[in-house]
Amino acid sequence: MIVRSVRMEGFRNYLDETVELSPGINVITGENAQGKTNFLEAVYLLSCGRGFRTRLDSELLAFGSDYTKVTGKVFSAEREQSIEISMRSGTRKQILVNGVRKNSSDLSEILRVVLFCPDDLNMIKDGAKARRRFMDMAISQLRPSYAALISEYTRLYEHKKRILSDWREKPSLLDTLDEFSDSLSRCSAQIIRYRAAFARRLTETAVPIHSEFSGNGETLSLDYQTVGTVTDSFAAASEIYAELLEHQKAHREAEIASGNVLSGVHKDDLDIGINGVNARVFASQGQTRTAALSLKMAEREISLEDTNDCPILLLDDVLSELDAKRQEFVLNRIGGGQTLITCCENGQLRERTGGKIIGIAGGKTIRL
Ligand SMILES: Nc1ncnc2c1ncn2[C@@H]1O[C@H](COP(=O)(O)OP(=O)(O)O)[C@@H](O)[C@H]1O
Ligand SMILES: [Mg+2]
């Protein structure tokens, strides 16, 4: 898939600007706070209907504006297509694909991206939430049914949490507790199978990338951790479900006493090790960057293998932080698909990539 052009109207600091892209590497360059990351966010929006630095969609509207529209011309599934996302404050956003109304979850069929931004370094160093998010985003782009399972899980979880926090005021709420625990276990069993399969493929793909990328043959390891009673996360969903129910039962009293949901896949983690020690605790800054980037490159390769189409790689401010050898490695490895790289510096990196250079200043493209 290739993004040919993106038009941003009233989007962040862009009043009305169209950026034309090359099918290979595009280097987006400019001073700080000019709109480089905002532009990547517009491309990201086209792939999933949300920004990656927003809590609320309304943050994407240009200051003082009550309307925004982002239009992408995309080559995908062997034809030219258009994606148009518009929002007016106070109303639901509208998504049109080739002029037909769609949902956010339909977008990944036409445009998939793999984003790597400085926040992704948290994936190694932060708590399990960041790693679950990484798995969930990656699997959702490939399997829309997984995205639906996650929203179903979230809905059930929120409901069960409310029962556990409010039952003292309204004891009858407890009547439905077991029903919710049961539904959560059913849903969890399927989520576990997806996550286990993804973790296995990620290991197969990321370990060799990381070994080469680290330059000194470091060994990356990944270990998917889920609910303690699950003996085999690849087993049939019915088997996993039975084991989950056991865990639910064992924690029932504690859940009621604490008011918290203690059993379920909302506590899953993906343990990341480097040379046999926990990366979260021991990885240096350089190791953190190398490991995170290896995982993202692996995500891109898995998506390519799975769909026969290469997702767009968005690299925000990361390449310029690498030494020349590692930059070289990344640039060689990404050959083939379309890549958008933002950077501040003017010299080396721009020349080394051999890509199209796009200058950005004050929310406009400029001639360099
Ligand atoms: N909703 C918005 N409306 C107008 N300007 C915005 C909006 N959101 C962010 N900005 C502005 O965009 C600029 C930052 O753009 P960004 O793309 O992050 O810069 P960089 O080029 O450093 O990546 C800041 O000046 C910020 O004030
Ligand atoms: Mg930026």
The gist of it:
With 368 residues, the protein is of the alpha/beta class. The protein contains ten helices and 15 strands. The radius of gyration is 22 Å and the shape is globular.
Structural notes for this entry:
- This protein is an alpha/beta fold.
- The chain has two domains: 172 residues, Rossmann fold (3-Layer(aba) Sandwich); 185 residues, RecF/RecN/SMC, N-terminal domain (Glutathione S-transferase Yfyf (Class Pi), Chain A, domain 2, Up-down Bundle).
- The strands form three sheets. It has a six-stranded antiparallel β-sheet with strand order 2-1-4-5-6-7, with helices on one face. It has a six-stranded mixed β-sheet with strand order 8-12-13-3-14-15, with helices on both faces.
- Helix 5 crosses helix 8.
- Helices cover 43% and strands 23% of the residues.
- The longest helix has 37 residues.
- The site of magnesium ion has 5 residues, from helix 1.
